[in-house]
Fold:
Amino acid sequence: MQPALLALVLLVLTSIGYYLGRGRSLRVANGSARVLHSLPSYYGFYTALWCGIPALLLLAAWLLLEPAIVTRLVVADLPSEMRELPEARRDLVVNDIENVLEDNTTRDADPDILAAAERYRHLQGLSAAALAVAGASGETSKRTLSWSVVEIALSVRMRTRARSSSALTLRNASKICSLEPSA
Structure:
């Protein structure tokens, strides 16, 4: 999956998280936004942040680290005489491997470079599949976690509000009872 498409999918899932969090807050409050401590949209934004920010951070880290990791794995699989070359020459070998991948040219290429290019292509495919799986499973677990966090926040705030209103009612009742009748 292309990074731009994956970012777009994550943004769509994050906006879905907003609507689900907003709806969840209203369902927990039995449809009455007056019972909630905050506006339902705040709970939606909270859920969207819990879903979107970690996913986008994971995507950014993956996109920054993936090329270096794949290159190191390919270099580690090269024959020992190519691995032990000076760094500048080894970078040229990696560049030859990337050129074979981009141009799909196999003429005049060393068989070791062709094998390394095939390994590079295989690792890039695995990386893309792993990113898609990590994104899907991460979104599912984050959505579950964010729903739990929103529900806990809602229940704590609703209990606090109920306690304060019942304490206010008792205080007012005790004031009324303590008044002496006027003669």
Summary: The chain has five helices and no strands. Helices lie at 3-28, 40-76, 80-83, 87-103, 111-178.
